[in-house]
Write a structure and sequence with these properties.
- There is one protein chain.
- The protein is elongated.
- The protein is an alpha+beta fold.
- It contains five helices and nine strands.
- Helices cover 22% and strands 25% of the residues.
- The strands form two sheets. Strands 1-2-3-9-4-7 form a six-stranded antiparallel beta sheet, with no helix packed on it.
- Helix 2 (34-41) crosses helix 3 (45-52).
Amino acid sequence: MSSPESEPPDGPAEAAPVVAPQLRALRRRAALTLEAAARAAGLSPAHLSRLETGQRQPSLPMLLALARIYGTTVSELLGETVAERDAVVRAADMEPTAAGGWTYWQAGAPGRGMQALRVHVPYASQGDIVRVHPGEEWLYVLKGRLRLRLGDAAHRLAPGDSAHFDSLTPHRIAAQDPDGVELLFVHTLLQSPTATLCLGPTPGETP
């Protein structure tokens, strides 16, 4: 896997003047020196300095790495402001969203770095799709039984079981029983709309 700095360098871009001061301010808020932050992000101090002065535009892998190090979101790194959200999400407000054969209910406020969902996974839907993406995932089985593949390891989860893993680990999720499986699902795919969790529009056969 390539490091953030191995991305092709971009020249100064229109968004750089906005990103640059945010990168510097958030690094200082995290009480990190330029050298320490660069080392943690897999960058050289000179490269991070160019990002902070607007001489270079950061790539998405760089933004993801810096957001994790600074304990923030990509949106905040980009200087975006988000309207105040309610802390409580009522069941009546959880509208179902269908995507790729799965059904999602937003169980947390949208637009946050950590997204919470209730998910119904039907039998024989997307069980052959391997997902790999930045972030972390936590899931909890509410009803039914889940087949979870993490790398080369296969797991069977029953109601009450949970899993927490780095989502750069190749993973597959499938319902084991014909009635499907219901999950609570939390992930750190920053600012992702619900539908993008289905990384493949065509339902596949369960292996």
